[in-house]
Amino acid sequence: MSARTTHLDKGVAGAMSALSAAAKQGFGDPALAELVMIRASQINACAFCLDMHIDIAVKNGEDTKRIALLNAWAEGGELFDARERAALALTEAVTVLTDGFVPDEVYAEAAKHFGEAELAHLIGLIAVINSWNRLMVSRRIEAGGPAW
Q: pTM, whole model, 2 decimals?
């Protein structure tokens, strides 16, 4: 087994949990929030976060077909509406950041579907799930494993 630590400082975990809750509450769309968190976790290959957020999404009534096809949302046709596609495109742009910035057209499309405060919370939600992904992946926390 590779060298790793499962330890996560309780202060860090508490701060991250509070940030997650604030972003999710301010965003106001729990179903779409779970899709965003699943999509970022797919990109970051975070089994722990995927396991947790897929379970939450299913318990909240999300369609399993949509979850299964989330990795191919852009080709999903009518399966994802314009608002969801805008959020998922923004999720990918913020998560990857290979060009250094979120493309203006991705941000502009998201701004068409989300008010200023809602968009700020969406970006916060994307940032926090990426941080959680990095905390779990760097410590090699497996699906269903202990978070700390």
A: 0.93
